[in-house]
Amino acid sequence: MEKELDEIRGRNGGETVEIKSLRVPEVVQNGSEASVVLDCDYSVENKAGLVVKWFFNNQTSPVYQWILNKKPQDLGVLKGKLNLDYRASDDETKKHRALQILRPTTELSGEYRCIVSTFDGEASEAKKMIIYVPERTIELKQVKPNEDRVKVECSAEGVYPEPRMTINTNNAASNRKEPLPIETIKERTDGLFDISVSILIEDRELQTPTTFSCELSIPEANYTVHRQSVYYPGPNEVRHRK
């Protein structure tokens, strides 16, 4: 029985192979870093057959492989995008365990899995890195289709990953019905997103003045930006934006 448990521990990396820490940047702004390091620190009881592999998303082939005493290899989506001379440790059994990705861009946003194996066992861990693009432009505008109503529209261009957008007001009549927002999200050929949200409101449902607030967020990147506009109901409205 004890022998069977030892074999299970070996296969699962319980004792013979253990990943001590996996350090992956959670959020990186596109084009803001010359390089980022994804580090997979581990311990092995026996270095025989030591191989470190990194996988990207659900791909079955590795994007990086280092076999002890051999040169590391950049593969797949990371081909030509790694510093293969980077050393994470002076320990010869760990020196090429990490990825140094050069000039990371949005196509490298996703989950990275480190797998460490020897002849005795294997261990793996995964973490996600989001490479985001803030809006190229964002605009909050008011349009009067007639004297009694206002259309408020917020739009942003060139965002990644897929954003969310809302329009709110902090100074509306208590009996006002919430307008139904119209949202449009478009994924462009370059992989970025354009988004817009608009609402149509009767002037009689608003107080004077009313402040509209647009919030653009990228949930996966914990990124949020706001725009505000002050509106004065009536035919001679005055608008202020900030």
Automatic annotation (TrEMBL):
<feature type="domain" description="Ig-like">
    <location>
        <begin position="15"/>
        <end position="131"/>
    </location>
</feature>
<dbReference type="InterPro" id="IPR013783">
    <property type="entry name" value="Ig-like_fold"/>
</dbReference>
<keyword id="KW-0393">Immunoglobulin domain</keyword>
<dbReference type="GO" id="GO:0016020">
    <property type="term" value="C:membrane"/>
</dbReference>
<protein>
    <recommendedName>
        <fullName>Ig-like domain-containing protein</fullName>
    </recommendedName>
</protein>
<dbReference type="InterPro" id="IPR007110">
    <property type="entry name" value="Ig-like_dom"/>
</dbReference>
<dbReference type="InterPro" id="IPR053896">
    <property type="entry name" value="BTN3A2-like_Ig-C"/>
</dbReference>
<dbReference type="Pfam" id="PF00047">
    <property type="entry name" value="ig"/>
</dbReference>
<dbReference type="InterPro" id="IPR013151">
    <property type="entry name" value="Immunoglobulin_dom"/>
</dbReference>
<keyword id="KW-0472">Membrane</keyword>
<dbReference type="InterPro" id="IPR036179">
    <property type="entry name" value="Ig-like_dom_sf"/>
</dbReference>
<dbReference type="Pfam" id="PF22705">
    <property type="entry name" value="C2-set_3"/>
</dbReference>
